[in-house]
Design a protein that fits this description.
The chain has one helix at residues 64-87; strands at residues 7-11, 19-28, 33-45, 54-58. By secondary structure, it is of the alpha+beta class.
């Protein structure tokens, strides 16, 4: 079942998303697998290698129209950069 309000976890030091948390797992005989029992407060960022405070940010799904608008804006900005470089003698 999908989460109603999904979030991504980010490092408070570098902004990376490769965060690890200390935890305990316990064996479930019925399911024959390890299951998460407790997650502790300590967080480690694999990107910067520091023990950090981690932050949650909401994941907002974009519509196809929003993606197209962003792509159009990026293409227009790239064209402006090319024109600017051309007229400044950079090309």
């Amino acid at each position: 079942m999908p989460c109603e309000n999904p979030v991504s976890i980010h490092c408070g030091n570098c902004g990376g998303k490769n965060i690890k948390a200390d935890a305990y797992a316990e064996w479930n005989e019925e399911n024959q697998k390890w299951e998460l029992a407790t997650v502790f407060d300590d967080r480690l960022c694999d990107d910067c290698g520091h023990q950090v405070q981690a932050y949650e940010y909401p994941i907002i799904e974009q519509t196809a129209e929003q993606v197209a608008e962003e792509e159009h804006a990026a293409a227009a900005e790239a064209m402006q950069d090319e024109n600017r470089a051309y007229f400044q003698g950079g090309v």
